[in-house]
Structure formats: C-alpha cells, structure tokens
Amino acid sequence: MPALSLFRAAAASAGFGTTMLSLAFAGALAMIAVLVALPAGARVRLPRPAAVGIGLGLGLALQLPGAWLRLHGHPAGSAMASPGGFGVWASATTAVALAEEGWLRGALQPMIRRQAGPAGAIWLVALVFAVAHVPAYGVQAVPLDLGVGLLIGVLREWTGSTLACGVAHAVADLGWWWTA
Question: Residue range 143-164: average pLDDT?
Fold first, then answer.
C-alpha cells in the first residue's frame, strides 16, 4: 500500500492526470485485495443496511472539522471548488476510497487480526493507512489520518462490513471538495 501511494505521488508529480491516475490506483488496490482475500478463503457478503448507514454517519461526522474551519474563515476552507468537475472527481475519489478500504479493512485487517487480535489489527492497519497518505498530504496529516484510520478500523470490527468502511471513507473524502 505505501509503495502504491509513493508510485501514485511520483506519477502525479511527473504530470499524469490525477483522475486517470486515481482510477488506476483504485483498480490496483482492488486487484490486490482480491488476490489477498480470495486465497485466504474470504467470502463476499452484502452488508446490513444499518452498517452502511453507520458508515455514512461516520463519513459525515468526519466532515465536521473541515466545515467548522470553513465557517470560521480558515484559509483552508475559503474557496469552494467549481461544481463543473465534481462528477468525475467524485467518481474517482469514491473508487479510490472503496478500493483502499477493500484492501485495508477487507483483506489486511482480518489477516492481521488472526495474529494480533482485533485491537492490534485496528492499530496496525490505521498506521498503514496514515503512512500511505503521507505522499498526498504530508507528515503533518499523520495524526489526523491515524485517528481516522482507527475510527474506520473500529467500524469494521463493530459492523463486520467493509462496505460501511468504504462509505465512511468516501463520504469523508468527498467533503474535501468544499473544504480544501
């Protein structure tokens, strides 16, 4: 995962389009998740609607700090992006978030849980999540990403749903359109 993030950051700085790059990144993560999960005997199961609703609620809650900053005139939230490119950006962002969660919470967390238990798996996967986002957001975002990773890891353990994690992650990321 960190290697893919570093590759993505290097390709973006070399001038490759971010939308296509994000979709390729999401596809690579999804393939890794399938390759890791299927041999481990993982089964695809549909989540309970309540678990997805909880994921949606967490994603909305994760938008609150950015909304608070914007309401208080913080420069990071001072300009709303133009709505023209939202559809393409939102599709790519959602695909990446779902693919990351398929890999991290769907494949890696259960694999680590067998060796380190639920708490150890949540912490280790949250650390991977935080480190993987350093190329995109910098080292200063590690505490925030670690906290978000812990919340999403707990969501996975509590609901048993990888899709709930993907929904939480995607909804939180989609909030950046207005707060970044």
Answer: 90
